[in-house]
Amino acid sequence: MVIKELICTNIQTENFKNKKMKKFILSALTIAALSITSCSTDDDVSGGNQGNNEELSLSGNITENRTLVAGNSYVLNGPLFVKNGVTLTIPAGTVITAQAGGTDVYLMVERGGRIIADGEPNAPIRFTASSQSPAAWGGLIINGNAFISGQNPQGQNEAGTEVNTGVLFGGDNDADNSGVLDHVIIEYTGARIDGSAEHNGLTLNGVGSGTTLSNIWIANGDDDGIEFFGGSVNASNIFVLNAKDDMFDFTQGYRGTCTNLYGIRQADYTAVTSDPRGIEADGNLDGNSPSDNTQSDFTVNNITIINSGNNVEFSDLIKVRRGATARITNALAGTFGTAIASDFIDLEDSRGNATASTSIDATANGTADETDIKNAPGATVNISANNTGADATAFSWTGYNF
């Protein structure tokens, strides 16, 4: 406004007779034009669609609701935190590529935050990586306010996230809602934090039953496929392919229901930890606190576990221990080719057995030995030839050839 008034005043008084004034006017107009252009650019960056196929970086804190733009290509180049009270929405078909960065690259939804990753069968949401071998990013971590195991006599406990112990999870709301994951692919994850802690493909920390987890494919990870640290979230149609360690891990007071789980280790996938398993279940965290309240007490309906890794030995196809109570129905678990398993079902451990309330209905497949069962707690174990395991047709959207 000042420049405009100055220009108009000089035009009226000098009537363009002075060359210097003409130059001044032109300079002023140029400055004004540049100012307008600059403001327009700022608005585009902060406010709207930034164009299809534009490569955008993701890291740091999300402190306001944010919706990614469908069609853009996003790069996760550091830790990304969805803060309390904030929702990150990811449209169907979006691809997020994590840069190889080990423990320094991951996506974490903090307590009170939400992620809405609602893909479609023909347009899944994909979290992938710039490096496939070795897998080199920390995966997706969701923290919630549901109950976890611990010593608080009221049952409300909290704990620090493995990757960052200053970020807490757990609370007193089993119905907590951390958002939606549906038709989502998570691949090439895994990073070692230290000798006892590492990143999984999908880590669920105290996540409540208000959260939707369905139709998720976790592939080629360097540690567990999916791990539940307490919480009460239910999950359906979860496919884990080529997990270096456990396929499905339950610990620290998990109390939900999982339906239609499929775990496969292919013949050509030989990477392995010291004790990989199909199912690994602890009542409390690593058996370190057997007197905890709110121990793991969960259900798995319809599960298939296949170890075809050449010369790869599973410690157990199904392991329940350390105060956990599991109800597993319609399980089909087996080894094929030169792959083996030390135990078909093992309910014993030096830090505490499974509870006697555990029940397992299973069928051995391939070369698995259905008589290789350790059951000191006297749980109900029914071995038959009638179980069919998971329904693979639920995973047709992945394109994987079962």
What is shown here, in short?
The chain is mainly β.
Task: Give an overview in words.
By secondary structure, the chain is mostly beta strands. The protein has 2 domains: 2-43; 52-398. The chain has 2 helices and 26 strands. The chain has helices spanning 2-14, 19-47, and strands at residues 55-62, 66-67, 73-82, 87-90, 95-98, 107-109, 114-118, 125-129, 140-143, 159-161, 164-169, 179-187, 202-205, 212-221, 226-229, 235-243, 248-251, 257-265, 277-282, 297-307, 313-321, 325-335, 340-346, 359-366, 373-374, 380-383. The chain has a 24-stranded parallel sheet that branches. A two-stranded antiparallel ribbon has the order 10-11. Strand 10 and strand 11 form a beta hairpin. Helix 1 packs antiparallel against helix 2 (19-47). The longest helix is centred in the N-terminal third of the chain and has 29 residues, at 19-47. The model is unreliable at 1-54 (pLDDT under 50).
What is the C-alpha radius of gyration, as a whole number of Å?
A: 27 Å
Task: Compute the separation of the termini in Å.
Answer: 69 Å
Largest sheet: 24 strands, parallel
Tell me the number of helical segments per DSSP (H or I, 4 or more residues long).
Answer: 2
Tally of structural domains: 2
The average pLDDT score comes to 87
Q: Extract low-pLDDT stretches.
A: 1-54
Residues in helices, as a percent range: 10-25%
Task: Report the portion of residues in β strands.
Answer: 35-45%
Structural class by sheet pairing and helices: mainly beta
- Give the total of beta strands: 26
Please tell me what the overall shape is. globular
What letter string, H or E per element, gives the SSE order? Answer: HHEEEEEEEEEEEEEEEEEEEEEEEEEE
